[in-house]
Amino acid sequence: MSTTTATLDNTALHGDTGTALRFITCGSVDDGKSTLIGRLLVDSKTVLQDQLAGVQRGGETDLALLTDGLSAEREQGITIDVAYRYFSTARRKFIIGDAPGHEQYTRNMVTAASAADAAVVLVDATKLAWAAEVEDGTVVKRELLPQTRRHTLLAHLLRVQSIVFAVNKLDAIDDAGLAFERISTALNAFAEAAGVQVAAIVPISALKGWNVATRHADWVGYEGPSLLELLEELPVTVQDEAVPFAFPVQWVEKFSSSADTSQGRRVFWGRVASGHVEPGQRVTVLPSNQTATVAQVLSHTRQPKVVHAGHSAGIVLDREVDVSRGDWLLAPGAFEPVREITATVAWLDDEPLVAGRVYWALQGHRWVKAKVARIVDRVNITTLESEPATQLEANSIGDVVLSLQQPLAVLPFTQSRALGSLVLVDTASHKTSAAVLVQPAAAKA
Amino acid sequence: MNARTETELLLPPMHSPARLSNTHLDALEEETVFILREVAAAFERPTLLFSGGKDSLVLLKCAEKAFGAGRIPYPLLMIDTGHNFPEVTAYRDQRAEELGADLIVRSVEDSMARGTVRLAHPGESRNAHQSVTLLEAIEEFRFDALIGGARRDEEKARAKERIFSHRDSFGQWQPKDQRPELWTLFNTRLAPGEHFRVFPISNWTELDVWQYIEREHVGLPSIYYTHKREVVERRGLLVPVTDLTPARDGETVQVRDVRFRTVGDITTTCPVESLAADAGDVVLETLSVDVSERGATRMDDMTSEASMEKRKKDGYF
């Protein structure tokens, strides 16, 4: 076999590969997400011959089959769960999460979005009534599809740093320029109403590869970069470093010997949630409320180091204090642990959330019981209005008040991803039922 | 991957690790170490699946960094088909001893003797039958977490799997009903008899693995590098000629310069033609390949498009 396909474009050895971009593709069913990813992989020469041979159907290449890896997905022609794919260009490494479009699999989209630096929301131009201004005497509102709204809102709620709309299938429309203009207007109007910042709107044809990897000149009046060029430039998620030091204890390592670096003490391992940690710093332990001074800080590979938010550290304290897995080490006086929080939840379980029920809640590495004190409201995906609700069904978004069995140090999710995020777990089925984003009101409570 | 055609075009200084921009390896290593510690803390009876293959050796290197040599807090488990390359088992034992780790070996042949594994015919590959032996070992030791070296870039079904992947009390994967995995808040709650499979190098690619092996000087069984071997050509693959896999009528046995890209059961693993003598050479070759790691080498994956998914549902690694 030949190696003539070798290409420098497909090396990971150039440019700043330290900042791999994690992005997801999302949007409604059949908007072309899997085809887009297939196109990115093929055009960046990541797909190898045997994989391409595996997706030939009747002489045609079906790019979607490159990521639809489950037999149920191939049978039904839909994406059920996230497929992660890896590719590089000359300038950057990428990790793609191909998220499912069906409403019933929203939980898998949320899984992908929680780790993403960017979201590409696909919009199928052929599904929108963009042409008619007036029909049967009434002005036609150019409604976006519910899943376009839902996924955009979820990506925004989860603080995905950059949200990009890719208007797809414009090659199948006669007056593509007008369609792109009007759909862009509708997208901008929706984003403005929802408070979503849009990084870019790019017209593409995933099927034909227009504006995907390479620019398609003189088309629909668009002069900007191709989608891939854009992705090469997008920032990775910025850590919440301005927030005071907080550190969830993941694992306690005990040394019996006093001869090693830990001087016979215990090392508390975990990932710095906010701020940074260095020797000499004072810390308070939640929940014991004892204080101590940091004697030594180790990097994830056990080298002495000042460790910043987002990175793993091993912390040795100057004296024996009561610390176990699940506890937090906090900057003294910086946090006020609370027993009640107001939070936005993305409900992911088929069994609805009901007021009065008790769930397990996980924050950092700490498990506490959480009771749904009340449901504040639910977001209407179409109107973006709040509406009253007595329960939250699967895939809905709403605000709830949770009362906690033990106090937690929380911050609004908008200030700190690590201190503002929890998951709820069903105590009977053990399913992960919700993503919980702490709201500002609670932090003051 | 015949010879090393045109790799000369690919920047000679790439042989020098210092010249590589591989800070992304630090990020991958840190993620892996975080997951390895999470397993140590969240489970009562975890084990690390260790085959002596390159992915499990990389995993073990990360475990050594996470815990220190001699301090890895879980035993190593190997499921032995009885059809191993001797270089691999020898290296496996040597490495376990160096690290002072507990190595548990459970054998498909024992399952056959018990009658829990029945081969359709004596020559049948034992690869898929490892699932039975694995599930028996899980029951015997009541393991609640098994750490594996599978990567998402290997195969389409693996690309779908969570890092903490739940298994029901029959050891089965439910690909249509995976738990959401949000941020790094891992839901490790289990009912009795259930367990987790945990994949700390999910986000590594084949190239990342080789770059890491080069950078960290991770030792590997010799058959990962070029050596002369008797092979026959069969359905586009180079099939090693061994006692277990003799040449068939009409096939010509040739001696070729080969290396293995993956190492598994002798009856299902094929080498590729290569002169790569060290990890740096392999990095260069990996940059220029046009066939995937498993596509070039695994007879078992080619049987049907869903064969990995099916095996995983049955409890496979």
From TrEMBL, chain B:
Domain Phosphoadenosine phosphosulphate reductase: 46-270
Primary enzyme class: transferase
Domain of life (superkingdom): Bacteria
GO molecular function, one term: ATP binding
GO BP field: sulfate assimilation
The entry's keywords: ATP-binding, Nucleotide-binding, Nucleotidyltransferase, Transferase
Stretches the record annotates as Disordered: 296-317
InterPro entries (UniProt xref): PAPS_reduct_dom (IPR002500), Rossmann-like_a/b/a_fold (IPR014729), SO4_adenylTrfase_ssu (IPR011784), Sulfate_adenylyltrnsfr_sub2 (IPR050128)
SUPFAM superfamilies reported for this sequence: Adenine nucleotide alpha hydrolases-like
Gene3D superfamilies, sorted: HUPs
Enzyme Commission no: 2.7.7.4
Family the UniProt entry places it in: Belongs to the PAPS reductase family. CysD subfamily.
Protein name (record): Sulfate adenylyltransferase subunit 2
Organism: Variovorax paradoxus
